[in-house]
Amino acid sequence: MQPFTPFIEAVRGLLMGIPVEAGTMLATLIWCAVFSVGGYVWALWLYNRKSVRA
């Protein structure tokens, strides 16, 4: 599944007042959660790595 297609469809639907399918909205929320958790883990890893050296 492409990560940005459901996101774009959900945003387009919400901005235009068109009903958004539940599956599209769920896929969007899952991708956002995955990207958020991945970014958090990566930032935490970088912070811990750099703070140990300093």
Q: What's the topology here?
A:
Layout: H1 4-16, H2 22-53
Helix pairs in contact: 1-2
How would you sum up this structure, described in words?
By secondary structure, the chain is mainly alpha-helical. 83% of the residues lie in helices and 0% in strands. The protein has two helices and no strands. It has helices at 4-16, 22-53. The chain is rod-shaped and about 50 Å long. The termini are far apart. The mean pLDDT is 89.
Strand content: under 5%
Give me the Rg, rounded: 16 Å
User: What portion of residues is helical?
Assistant: over 70%
Report the biggest beta sheet as strand number plus sense, adding barrel if it closes: none
Could you report the average pLDDT, rounded to the nearest whole number?
Answer: 89
Structural class: mainly alpha
**What separation lies between the terminal Cα atoms?**
41 Å
Number of strands: 0
**How many structural domains are formed by the residues?**
1
H/I helix tally: 2
Order of helices and strands: HH
Report the principal-axis shape. rod-shaped
Task: Return residue spans where pLDDT drops below 50 for at least 5 consecutive residues.
Answer: none
Question: What is the gist of this entry?
Answer:
With 54 residues, the protein is mainly alpha-helical.
What are the salient characteristics of this protein?
54 residues; mainly alpha; rod-shaped
